[in-house]
Amino acid sequence: MKKARGLIALMVAVLTLSACGQPEFTYVRDKAGTTYFKVPASFTQLDAYPIELYLSGDHPSSQAAALRAQRVWSTAFDQSAKPSVNHLLGSADPFVYAAVHQLTEEQRDTISLNRLRDFILPVTEQMRLLYQQQAVTANQPPMFNRFEPISDEVLALDGGARGVHVRFNYQIGADVQTFDHTAILDEKGATVSVMLIGCQSVCFQKRGAEFDKIANSFKLLRLPG
Predict the structure, then answer these.
(1) What is the mean pLDDT of residues 22-47?
(2) pLDDT the model gives residue 23
(3) CB under 8 Å to 179, separation ≥6 — which residues?
(4) Can you give the pLDDT at residue 153?
């Protein structure tokens, strides 16, 4: 009997140590080491290159795509049981996309807080109107409908960096998706670090505190030198 109890105690200790050894978060930094965030370890990391092609509209064999690959670092995480980059704009499970853009000289001259708001999806009234006009011109139904603003915060960060943190709804197909968008311009005006968290609005309402932790972990790092 004592031997059995000892064996049970040993098994419990091994299982406890095993559970303690599992990381709670995946910690992420871009290739230059300037942008940092963390996501729960239950998220699956994906290759974000297809997302870059979708957002830019570039052909994968084009010079534009090659130049973008040199200037943009990106990654994505999906908590779906069947992870896919297609969940960026529509999923019942949380999806996180993050990127760091090295700005061109032209982009540096035109960057603004509104440009940061519109860095991935149309958020400002001007950009939403332009998006609708383009859809009409192309004779295609718009993917994004019934925009609903939730919150909009201007970020004043250490060292002169600045940014925006906005949350909003879009109806996409039959579902309403909630997006949490953070974009930060570094103190030199040279890079934009951007994060987009999304899932269906019902999901976001239930798990908003979890998404706040992810968004709040998104920071610029100061490198030595």
Answers:
(1) 93
(2) 82
(3) 121, 167, 168, 169, 170, 196, 197, 198
(4) 96
